[in-house]
Amino acid sequence: MPKINLVISICIFSILLGITSAIKNQTRTIEKSIYKIDKKIAATEKDLYETELDYFYLSSPNNLSKKIEDLAFIEYIPMDFSRIYLNYRDFTDSQKKITILKINNEKKTKKK
Amino acid sequence: MKRKQKKNKDFNINQKSFYFEDYLETNQKNKKVKNSNISQDRVYLLFFLFFSLITIFSIKIIFVSLKNLEIYNQKNNSFHFTSLRRDIIDRNGTLISRNVKSFHAAINPNLIKNKENFLIKIRLNFPDLSIKKVEQKLNKGKYFYLKKRLDQNDKEKLWSLGEKGIIFEPFQSRIYTHANLYSHILGQVDYDNYGISGVEKYFDKELKDKKLLNSPLQLTLDTNIQHIIDDELNRALETFNATGGGALLMDVNNGEVLSLVSLPNFNINKRENITDNNYTNKITKGIYELGSIFKTFTIALALEKNLVSPETIIKNIPRKIKCSVHEISDIKQFPKDLSVEDILIRSSNIGTLMLAKKIGERDYKEFIKETNLLNMPEFELEELGTPLSFKWNKCKLETISYGHGIAVTPLQATATYAALTNGGNLIKPTIIRKEEQQDNKKIISSETSRKINIILRKVVTEKEGTASLANIYGYDVGGKTGTSQNYGNKNENLNTFISVFPSQNPKYALLVMLENPQVATDLIYNYRGMKIKGTRNEAGWNSVYIAGKIIKKIGPILAIKNKEFYNKHVAKKLN
Asked: Mean pLDDT score of chain B, rounded to an integer?
């Protein structure tokens, strides 16, 4: 009997020891990863904070109007309405028409 | 022993004594129990020990997972930054002001070994700094600041010197993303993050409220509109060679200020000691005699009291009137008989004066009191002007009726205009977005307000009107000009135009003011379809012209339906 008790005690001891160390290690890993993530979050937040500031500074109307003045030498030419496609299908349809017309023209020229 | 043996001989050896047997068994049992008790105690102890450990770690896990991340390693985290002041944003959410981490460069002379070498390095890198002063401070041996508010460049330069004695003291500085644009509104903070002027001072408590740190303070201003008005006004100063100017755009229904520009302005990111009075906020602190703009108040009051209608003809208007020692006359020669609306359209001083006499001093006083024109305006800025007080002596009513002898802030004049055109509700101008609606006092009836809007529109559209250059097609601009002398300096002109648009149902009031403008001889106006050169210097030829340009640009941003654009470019549904 005493032997059984001893065995049980050792078993319980080792099981609990295992569980405890596992929990302890898990806690440490979690703690470490939390620390790392927190650091990353803080760095990202800082970046975001400063980037926001840069964005609002660079996109301020005053800055934009200066940029436009700098780029004013570019001449923008209005595009023909017929060349503006509202969706991809319209574009492909018109391209198909053009190719069919091309083929027909080629055939005609060959016949001649 | 012998005795014992003798005693034992009397008994059968094989016979077991009951008592003895019992004793042995009990003894053994006791031993077993004792042994098992010890082992049980050990088990319990072990259980307790491990249970405690598990509980401790479980608690830690729970604590780690539940506790606020901000507390967690915050002090040791060099990236972490907690702002001491809230951000300020405009009505569209555009960032206007934010705190950032910055540094002061301080010197601990005891840590500098080679002082001469250090001074040479400083002289080479920072030629602007006075080396003599630095040397004196260095020799005193006391801790001192070499440079405050370092920028990244300066910090790197100092860092690269590799001196132990240079200490970078972190602090939070306030950055204003639009520099000059809001200089008269936002104000500044000191090195300890206390507001010292403008919004920063007025809302100092709210901006430092730790509970609200993550929610920015939202103003009613619109950065895009502010920029357009600022740009146009800056150009106007150049075109008309004016010494200063101001503009104010206000929502007539709730008093929200969308733009407040006062020129000249300054870069609030720089610390400069400005003593020139020209840099005051002309809209809220400047006190001016705004001239003919007051005629609208007189006419509105006369209509409100049912003394006249817009069509009522005032007959025999004299060319000159003598009041006490003053002689009052009109700039131009007007017909002798003028309708009430014509008096405002042509801006007749004497016509207005006659109407004021009809109203009487008591009612006029009451009106001025109701509109709070003579009290300090209620507005969320520290820089507010108090209108000059005066006595109602012999000629006061006469002169006030056409805007002379009464000096108020442009902010108050615009707010009163808003009240006259929005249906008669007196509004409080504000730069803070509020959810709750104001309880407005009515100063005139809706009917009078409607009549005033019609007349103000005619000031712009009629041939005799003084504000034709603001007739921007599609926006129904109405308004009144005012040309007066500067209260402090009679040699300086102050040309003002307060416009409301769209005049059928006014939404916005725009004030444009130019200080001491000159004739723009190089400018060619498009006046009623004709190209004419600038020869005149009244408000109609400068402030009105600028207001027109501003309205043309801000109209689409304010989403006011432009009739011209609507008729020409918007496709209409037939069914």
From this structure: 85
Q: Are A62 and B175 an interchain contact pair (Cβ–Cβ within 8 Å)?
A: no
Nearest chain B Cα distance for residue A18, angstroms: 10
Q: How far is B436 from chain A (nearest CA, A)?
A: 29
Instruction: Kindly indicate whether the ipTM for this predicted assembly is greater than 0.95, answering yes or no.
Output: no
How close does chain A come to B216, measured CA to CA in Å?
13
Number of residues that this document lists for chain B: 575
Query: In terms of pLDDT, which residue wins out, B389 or B367?
Result: B367
Whether chain A has a CB inside 8 Å of the CB on B223: the answer is yes
Give backbone dihedrals phi and psi of B69, rounded to 5 degrees, phi first: -60, -25
Residue B283 C-alpha from the chain's centroid: 13
Sign of the torsion formed by the C-alpha atoms of A67, B261, B403 and B507: positive
Two tokens at B553? 């640009």
Q: What tokens does B538 get?
A: 């009244």
User: Which residues of B are less than 8 Å from A43 in CB distance?
Assistant: 79
Report DSSP state, residue A76: P
| Stretch (H or E) spanning A103 | helix A88-111
Please name the residues in contact with A86: beta carbons below 8 A apart, sequence gap of 6 or more: none
List the structure tokens of B320. Answer: 């000159």
- Contact in structure between B512 and B543 (CB atoms under 8 Å): yes
Which of B32, B47, B50 to probe the A interface (max A CBs under 10 A)? B50
B58 contact residues in A (CB cutoff 8 A): 23
Contact pairs from chain A to chain B, CB under 8 Å:
98
**Interchain contact B97–A (C-beta under 8 A):** no
Going along B162-228, which residue ranges are E strands? 166-176, 217-218
Report d(CA B342, CA B312) in Å as an integer: 10
Q: A112 in helix, strand or coil?
A: coil
Distances (CA, A) of B134 to B126, B286, B381: 11, 42, 39
Which DSSP state fits B17?
Answer: P
- Whether B454 has its CB under 8 Å from any CB of chain A: the answer is no
Count of beta carbons in the 10 Å neighbourhood of residue B36 = 13
CA distance B27 to B21: 10
Distances (CA, A) of A20 to A8, A15, A25, A70, B41: 18, 8, 8, 68, 21
Q: pLDDT by residue (tens digit) across B124-161? A: 888 888 888 888 888 888 899 998 888 878 888 888 88
Instruction: Report CB contact under 8 Å: B179, A30.
Output: no
* Torsion, CA B209, CA B214, CA B220, CA B225, rounded to 10: 130
Closest CA to B504 of B472, B467, B477, B479: B477
In this prediction, residue B529 carries a pLDDT of 80
Which residues 178-197 in chain B show a CB within 8 A of chain A?
178-179, 181
